[in-house]
Amino acid sequence: MAIIAEWVAVDWGTSNLRAWGLDSGGAVVFENTSPKGMGKLQREEFPTALAEVLAGVSAANDGALDVLICGMAGARQGWLEAPYLEAPTDLSGLIAGAVRPAMPDGRFVPAILPGVCQKNGNDNVMRGEETQLLGLASLRPGFSGVVCMPGTHSKWAQLSGTKIDHFSTAITGEMFEVLRTHSVLRHSLAGDLDGPARADGFAAGAAAGLERPEQLLGQLFQVRAGSLLSGRTPDWCAGFLSGLLIGTEIGSNRHLIGEAPVPLIGSAPLCALYAQVLGMIGAKGETQDATEVVLAGLKAARGFAA
């Protein structure tokens, strides 16, 4: 039986892609996922990957089905590069910057939203997070403040309504993996990393990172020294490393954090860790539903085309 949708929203990440069919009222009528993220595809394979995840889906008007895509499909190494908007910028302009790759059979009409960049000596890029920020703005009209987006490459963005003023990136998640697998610290991280001592290690690392973020390079070696001299277990060391990196990230952005709660957009477990560390400095983190936010952003972007 065919699935009927008014249009399709797609979040195309590096590892996976997610597609949601929506009706004319914006309600989700189906959701599909695929492991064919940008990082697993050659350019010519994108149309097939999209057709596969939308197999059995038809347009409500019996014509071609509009597909609005955010994320890495628009990267330079993706399907078709969508040039960045330059911050400061109003995210209502995302749809105007969309690019439209061709599909072989014409059943689908894809449009890929651009990312956002910064230049002039403060070079930075985001691709996908801008749609989440637009979604947050649409779900919380009038919001103005800093937004934290934990992940492999965490983002800190200053948002005023639908305008992104500036942002920064911290490669916190990637740094944890690199240090865990390719540095001398790996010798202290061999074994059960999720044992009972991890929470204590995390708290100790977070406190150190918050108090002395400028000393990160020196403090990292405490992971190795702690296991050699103080009998620290792999789970404690893993917790300390994670806490130290997150604490350093938050400590480095402390000047941006005011009295208002900080929206956190990312996986729930990771956002919970960031909220814990924010609480250590008397701030509050509010975890947002990442799926709800990205869908709201895609809906809002499409709305600005009307």
What labels would you give this structure?
25% strand; 4-stranded antiparallel sheet; 5-stranded mixed sheet; 306 residues; alpha/beta; 34% helix
Description:
The protein has 306 residues and is an alpha/beta fold. Helices cover 34% and strands 25% of the residues. The protein is built from nine helices and 16 strands. The strands form five sheets. Strands 4-3-2-6-9 form a five-stranded mixed sheet, sandwiched between helices. Strands 8-14-13-12 form a four-stranded antiparallel sheet, with helices on one face. Strands 7-10-11 form a three-stranded mixed sheet, with no helix packed on it. Strand 12 and strand 13 form a beta hairpin. Helix 3 runs antiparallel to helix 7 (234-252) and helix 6 runs antiparallel to helix 7 (234-252). The model has no long low-confidence stretch (mean pLDDT 96).
Topology:
Blueprint lengths: L2 E3 L1 E6 L4 E6 L5 E7 L11 H8 L3 E3 L5 E7 L13 E2 L2 E2 L17 E5 L3 E3 L5 E3 L2 H11 L4 E6 L4 E7 L2 E8 L1 H11 L15 H14 L4 H5 L1 H8 L4 H19 L9 E4 L2 H13 L4 E4 L1 H14 L3
Parallel strand pairs: 1-5, 2-6, 6-9, 7-10, 15-16
Antiparallel strand pairs: 2-3, 3-4, 8-14, 10-11, 12-13, 13-14
Q: What letter string, H or E per element, gives the SSE order?
A: EEEEHEEEEEEEHEEEHHHHHEHEH
As laid out across the biggest beta sheet, the strand order is: 4-3-2-6-9
Computed CA radius of gyration, to the nearest angstrom: 21 Å
- Share in helix: 25-40%
Oligomeric organization of the protein chains: single chain
- Number of DSSP helical runs: 9
What fraction of the residues are assigned to beta strands by DSSP?
15-25%
Largest sheet, in brief, is: 5 strands, mixed
Mean pLDDT: 96
The N- to C-terminal Cα distance equals 31 Å
**Stretches with pLDDT under 50, minimum 5 residues:** none
- Basic shape: globular
Number of DSSP-assigned strands? 16
What class, by secondary structure content?
alpha/beta
